[in-house]
Input
Amino acid sequence: STMHVPTAAPKPNIFAGLSDVSISGDIPVEGEINVPVGTPIQDKEYSTLDEPVKDTILRDLKAVGKKFVHVMYPKKSSALLRDWDLWGPLLLCVTLALMLQGGSVNSKEDGGPQFAEVFVIIWFGSVIITLNSKLLGGTISFFQSLCVLGYCIMPLTVAMVVCRLVLLGGSWRFSFIVRLIVVTASFSWSTFASTAFLADYQPPNRKALVVYPVFLFYFVIGWMILTV
Amino acid sequence: MAANSDFLLTFQEFDSSESHLGGNGDATTISIEDTGAGSHKPQKQRRSAPVTSFEEDNDPLANDDKTELLSGQKRSSPFWTFEYYQTFFDVETHQVRERILGSLLPWPGRNFVHLYIRNNPDLYGPFWICATLVFVIAICGNISDFLVDLGKPQNKYVPEFRKVTIAATAIYSYAWLVPLALWGLLVWRNSKVMNIVSYSFLEIVCVYGYSLAVYIPAVVLWLLPYEAVRWFSIVVALCLSGSILVLTFWPAVRDDQPRVAIAIMTAIMALHILLAFGCKAYFFSTLEDEHTAVDAVVGHGTKSSPTMKMHRTNTMS
Output
């Protein structure tokens, strides 16, 4: 008699659970399928590339002008910080340095600040103040801070123009008092405006530590305007 | 006494060692935390506790080990990252204000470093106090020269901005190079004589920086044309800031040979006096010129020239 040897032991069905799984064809897939829309974007780039130069310049000038208006009426708006640019500060700095340039060519003791000195003071001072606020834990970016500090020089530039006009006529005593009032008002306006923009980005216990260098910076510029 | 043991039981450990040593209440208040905000609160609370009589000797003994330990813990970032330098600006407004007020009012027995710096030396105070002093000296020197020349006819008012650079160089080199030299000297003496108190370079920079704060109102007082007021203000400023330096550095050098200790303290004070009188001499006119100016104003009355410029003769003595 033959013995039936089970030829195959029942395999341990390690795939037992998997037999229930079936991959159906209609599993929902989530996601977006985007076909990159080429032509409209290219049209936009063409539109700014092809526009006349006058339009480009006017658009930048309008942006700069809008920021000047923001400085004149400092509300808590983020427009100055969102679209920062350094054209405005450069314009103001050059204007100020040209007007502050001291003395005439033939004076031996030319004590007024030279163009380079004013330029360096303004930009170096802004960089130092920005570094100071970042080291104290401020969350504002480097160039945004430079932009705000530069734009807030505008009241002082206006004061400079007024001082030059006042110097043209009138007695010296009277003109000095008027200039003192104008410069004091404009430097406090500058400090207040830049504080209004920058205050939100500083840690709460260190606001005075950040505002004081700004105050010193505008005070020194105001002093330069008053004495030249 | 039962009350005493309850006292010992209720308080935490480091407080009991405090009463053992009879040391300064602030000596053991160093909290081992890395983050900035957390470590300041216990300091503030401790400082408000009344400071009773204490031995200066025991204070550094208990303090110094922890000082060395923690100063290593704080600067954990490598020096080329921004975060490393942020640790030097880890101060808040009230701390800076307290440090400045503490530098204006020295008290024998109160060590400025131990009381106010508390191994959190900052660079904000020294840097901005020096900057303020530079501009105040330049501006007040300018004003005083202008006031001298007010009565002279045909005076030219010259702002003289090169004085700002000279003032900046003088003050910043005093406030940063002298601490460097002093720190090197103290480290060298420390290797020869076992001093109990030693300061890190940044703490010395802090002491020098904050001690210059008293000069700011003093320089503003120099505007008044009365010689008595000027001498009074410079002497008072010298005494206050000099005593801060003396009280800070005397514990560090007194264990040395007496001649070396006296020599170091004399050098510190001599440099300080040199800075004060040098600034006064260079940036401010002397009073003789003011007398002639006053006579001129009385004699000639006011004047206004159409060009609004006035000549100024160089009258520095």
Notes: Residues 15-27, 33-64, 66-73, 301-317 of chain B have pLDDT under 50 and may be disordered. Chain B has 14 helices and no strands.
